[in-house]
Amino acid sequence: MSACALRRNLILALVLSLPALAAPEGATPEQAGGFYSQVAGQGQTVQPGSPFGLAVRLVGAPTVAGVEVGLIRVLSGGPSITCLPALTDTTGLAVLSCQAGFTPFTTQVLVTLGDSSGRYAPDFGITIRPPVLAEGITKLQGDRITVPRGTEFEISVQVVRQGAPVEGLRLTLTRNPLEVPVSCPGVIYTDAQGQGRAMCSSLDDLETDATVLITLSDGQGRSATFTVFLLAQDLLSDGITKVSGDDQAATTGTALLFPLVARVIKNGRPTSGVRLRISVSDQRLLQCPLEVYSDDQGLATIACAAGPIAGNGFSLVYVNDDQGTALLEPFRVSVVAAALGAASEFRLQSASPLRVDAGTKVTDALVIAALDGAGNPVGGVPVFFSSNQNIEFSPSVAITPANGLATSSLTFGCPGGDGEIRVGPQPGTAILRIPVEVRTGGPALLTRVQGDGQTGAPGERLDKVALVVRLTDRCFNPARGRQVTWRVDQPGAATLENVISTTDGRGRSSALVRLGPKPGSLTVSASYGDLKRTFELEVVSAPGGLRSVSGDQQTLPRNSLSDPLTVELTSVDGFPLPNQPIDFAVTSGEGSLTAEQVLTDENGRASTTLQATGSFGPVTVEAKLSSPAALADEALAQAELSVQFHLVVGGRRAAVNVDSGFVNGASFQPGLTPGSFASIFGTGLMEGIVGVVAASGPPFPTTLRGVKVTIDDVAAPIIAIADTGQGEQINFQVPFEIAPGYSRIVLSNNGTETVFERVYVVDALPGIFEVAIQNGLYAAALHADYRLVAPADPARPGETILLFLTGLGAISPDPGTNAPGPVPPARTAVAPVVLLDGAPVSNFGGFYAPGLAAAYQVNFTVPDGITTGNHEVRVTSGPHSSQTVTLPVRR
């Protein structure tokens, strides 16, 4: 079977194995018929955020049970509609739970339900009518939220007069205290829905947790104040948290005055589009949507309403997402009847007056008894708490149990001072008035006012902007006449002048700074007791020069990482320059940098590395100060602010066993001989070689396909290189200049050099060349007429045979390395001995083979009395012997 046919069969088998898609259970696509009829829900009027039902029935289909019905489309220019899908029952009935989004006006929409087979029900006409608008300025979003440092947040209100939204109304924003680093617009205007929105942000220089009050006023005595908690950190804790709406009450049958608002935080930031599932502990008392989604601020608004059943009690609202993350503590909502009931008196049972510190929480601080006319406790009575101070009540409305006692825990905020707590049976009423004193305590906060982040030249006095801190209590009231300690955290980096340690009437202390001579960052700290604030300053000097520190002249294998390329930037005064951008770029050759722009460190140094991804050869990397031409001083702009690194991308590093990897090229015995044919066996010897690459010569090249062998600084002629899959091999001539003993060999693989010390070199090490004939190895020998001696053409008794070998050492006259053997032949310094079956035979001496390089020749006579068959031949030179080879002979 062809590859194409096999591929076609595999695709066909895959298609046939796929299940049928999109058909309802028990039906095929051809059977999907029928239609939907309306059952219930047409023409109803609903409130935003309140659940409502729509019912349809599938009729006329082969299978009517188990079909998923969902929301297909919504036709309107108004709010969104969401519906949870539902499955049809055995009669084809499906009931969907839906919810409408917020709208300030009565709006009509058309809702279409259907399934994935294209069957639709007739459109449902739905009227969405918002609850009666609250008169005045009502907070919508942003109250009592927690905001991390450097984060934007939104506050919004709705303005209603005589039951209608007010468009184009000018609202003024004020902050208290002003010292808290929050940025807000000074003025906003309401839109067509009477809504005004302000985008504020917590600034990056917030150093301690703080609370800020943001008030929106219409200039006619109406206002709304938002409490925002600021965190001196960059990220929030992941999870779902309450923002506003907790511990409120609703009268039976009415919507909550304020929605419940939760925030979704993922990876430390508010996250939009997260579906939150809503459930309540008592659906008779409270009705909420089944699900809501978070907006771009991570806020999810849950609009709930009290149930129609009259009575007093409370319900818990639980919130969780699809990943199982849940609101740690559910919202608590009280539902109360309109009338007080049988209670005719409220009596304070806890201590009065209350004297507490701002920022503290007192559990069960208030205990109120609800009594009838005879002084007996009355259960089921709503008790409402409010105050003209910044006090958070938990709960803000309590329902008395059977013992008639209602309790509430209090958290006391700023600005502090005298006030009162009001207790009554309805919101805003006051049967009891309880005095309260919120104390601010001693110095608790030390904040930076100005001076942070300044830069200057060496020795410059930063007198345009002094360093100023403000010492206050926890409510930002100034602490006067206190001693603030100033110091430079790095001795010698700067000096302080005009230090005013004693705080003034605004709680302020200040100092001027004269910078030291050395460029770089420094910090100045101001402290009062355990309170401390730090100013970050920097001494900036003109650059004077850039030099390379390390990394130049490297050779690295391809696909490897270089050692760091490091430069040092110094000022005109010779000091290291930190925090300066150095651009690195490959200007010639191929490769990629791990970083192309690096800021110098405190020592003025910046580094990158080169990934050798390209071809073999030189690579140039340039480092330079980013945009030196921007310097004001033309002489400085012309300073030497660039450096070049010169590298070479080479092959792998060679690995060779010094004792066994450098051998005679014919016998493969360890050791090298001057002038002889030699081999190297190892790994990392070459790159990109498959099989054998042979050079032509003599003379032979000293570099072949990027491979080079140097012995005692003398380049060796390369005869061949090979990678057969069984190992890597270099064949070369050992230069005649090499002296016996131990040599230093450098192997270069495409520029990557590996050094091998103490490689053994011997004056003579005979090795006889062999040829493969008929699956056997035989001596490389010729008849006198230059025919190859072989089993089919063997040597004869009395015949002179030409035997070829290497490793016989010095010759005279010396033709030189990489030169062919001369004519007349050059003789060996030591006469070789030829042994046939272990016995010496007559020979004509050893000489350098004419016309060949690195090869020797010995001519010997075959004895007359020799027998037919294969005989052993060996050659010795002094104490050194060759391997034993085979010579075929026939009588």
Structure notes:
- The protein is mostly beta strands and 891 residues long.
- A hairpin with a 2-residue loop joins strand 75 and strand 76 (839-841).
- A 5-stranded mixed sheet has the order 2-9-8-4-6, with no helix packed on it. Strands 10, 12, 13, 15 and 17 form a 5-stranded antiparallel sheet that branches. A 5-stranded mixed sheet has the order 11-19-18-14-16, with no helix packed on it.
- It is elongated.
- The longest helix is centred in the N-terminal third of the chain and has 15 residues, at 3-17.
Strand content: over 45%
Largest sheet: 5 strands, mixed
Say how many strands there are: 81
Cross-sheet strand order for the largest sheet: 2-9-8-4-6
From the N-terminal CA to the C-terminal CA, the straight-line distance is 59 Å
Q: Report the C-alpha radius of gyration, rounded.
A: 48 Å
Helices, by number, come to 2
Structural class: mainly beta
Give the CA-based shape.
elongated
Low-confidence stretches: 1-31, 629-635
> What is the average of the pLDDT values?
86
Q: Level of helix content?
A: under 10%
Which terms summarize this structure?
2 helices, 891 residues, 2% helix, five-stranded antiparallel sheet, five-stranded mixed sheet, mainly beta, disordered N terminus, 81 strands
